[in-house]
Amino acid sequence: FDIDSSGDAVVLTIDGLGSGFVDFEAADAHTVQITHSGTGDFTYSSQATGLLTINASTTASGNLNISTVGTAGATSIDVDGQLSVGGTGGILLQATNGHIVLSDIASVLDAGTGDIAVIASGGNIVVDNATAQIEIDNTGTVALTAGAIGGVGNELDLSGATSLSITDAAPGDIRVREQTASTIVDTTITQSAVNIGRIDVDYFGDDVV
Fold it and tell me: Given pLDDT bands bounded at 50, 70 and 90, which one contains residue 73?
């Protein structure tokens, strides 16, 4: 269904079977919180040109897909609470033109055995935490797309992932760090052009790319 909050908070709850799809059609910045305690996926697509803030959200057994599809540069996503999915569900965060900001929250993206994709093809993935605290916690694949990811002292910390894919979409440095144990079996790195920035992947133990 389509909604327009006029800038207010949006709280969405499903407690039965089936998937949910919400298309936010207004331009204003807004906050959303999603709870799906039944079976099925939840997809939230925002056409807003203002900031989309995501509070703590969960699905019991399905995928959680959150995206901004606006045409203005302000279509960023601020993850301000833990996003958690159960079962084999995965998490997709996609900002078409803006940045994705991961707030200072332990395991801010937690998908259990599922996959996690964070795509900021027209911006950066920003990490607020400046310690070794885990940002992405799952045992599936982690796929990252952005110009810059993390930074010196603000590395994007992963735990449990078995496969890592990085797409360097624009100028900027990328800094990713594996924590807790050595679990990443394979890594794929793709650059959109040459000489657009540094990519550092610090694996648990002594291996560094």
Answer: very low
